[in-house]
Specification:
- The complex is a heterodimer of chains A (111) and B (114).
- Chain A has 111 residues and is mainly beta.
- Chain A contains no helices and eleven strands.
- In chain A, the strands form two sheets. In chain A, strands 2, 4, 5, 9, 10 and 11 form a six-stranded mixed beta sheet that branches. In chain A, strands 1-3-8-7-6 form a five-stranded antiparallel beta sheet, with no helix packed on it.
- Helix content of chain B is 0%, strand content 54%.
- With 114 residues, chain B is mainly beta.
- In chain B, strands 2, 4, 5, 6, 9, 10 and 11 form a seven-stranded mixed beta sheet that branches.
- The chains are: A mainly beta (111), B mainly beta (114).
Chain lengths: 111, 114
């Protein structure tokens, strides 16, 4: 059974600080996704990582993938309040069929 | 370019009733997947439809069924509702016919079972 584990599950950080969210998965994956979800809203796609060593950046967020370690990271640089949300990683192990999600990391950025 | 749409937005049902949720995929997409997201949890895969057939199914009972129409839109039906079926139901579409696997999510239907 595929397991996708995120940590931490809850993160409170000050504006301007840096932090990393980790996503471990238990089996070989075709691709890994990061999504953002605001309270009561749907999922917004942030990054799609397709190969070992892939790194993608958008604004203050940078995602990377190490398929050998079965690990993806989402790094937050100089956090701002607008980044407060829940972040999910999801693993696709069967070429576009089911996405297997982690439990999510609830991020709160405070002044 | 219209994104994924879902209806209704909110729904309140009584235990034992049946419910139908609807999804229209993003323009140009041919594959629809359904997910259930309980409060405070990550989405759980229910099933996926492609070419009007169920291609893969997650660990959900037969009370959950679906359909895909020739225009690629889809329905999710849940029979004999239980209190535990209360959740946000998300539809996602992709264009697997062209080898594009990224799934785009709709706004969801919030189902409350009382």
């Amino acid at each position: 059974e595929l397991k996708v584990e995120q940590n931490p599950l809850f993160l409170s950080m000050q504006e301007g600080k840096n932090y990393t969210i980790y996503c471990n998965y238990s089996t070989t994956s075709d691709r890994l996704y990061w999504y953002r979800q605001d309270p009561g809203k749907s999922l917004e796609s942030l990054f799609v990582l397709l190969s070992n060593g892939a790194v993608k950046q958008e604004g203050r967020l940078m995602a990377s993938l190490d398929t050998k370690a079965r690990l993806s990271t989402l790094h937050i640089t100089a956090a701002v309040h607008d980044l407060s949300a829940t972040y999910f990683c999801a693993v696709d192990i069967d070429s576009g069929y089911a996405l297997n999600f982690g439990k999510g990391t609830s991020l709160l950025v405070t002044p | 370019d219209a994104g994924v749409t879902q209806s209704p937005t909110h729904l309140i049902k009584t235990r034992g009733q049946q419910v139908t949720l609807r999804c229209s995929p993003k323009s140009g997409h041919d594959t629809v997947s359904w997910y259930q997201q309980a409060l405070g949890q990550g989405p759980q895969f229910i099933f996926q439809y492609y070419e009007e057939e169920e291609r893969q199914r997650g660990n959900f009972p037969d009370r959950f069924s679906g359909h895909q129409f020739p225009n690629y839109s889809s329905e999710l039906n849940v029979n004999a509702l239980l209190l535990g079926d209360s959740a946000l139901y998300l539809c996602a579409s992709s264009n697997q016919g062209r080898g594009s696997y990224e799934q785009y999510f709709g706004p969801g239907t919030r189902l409350t079972v009382t």
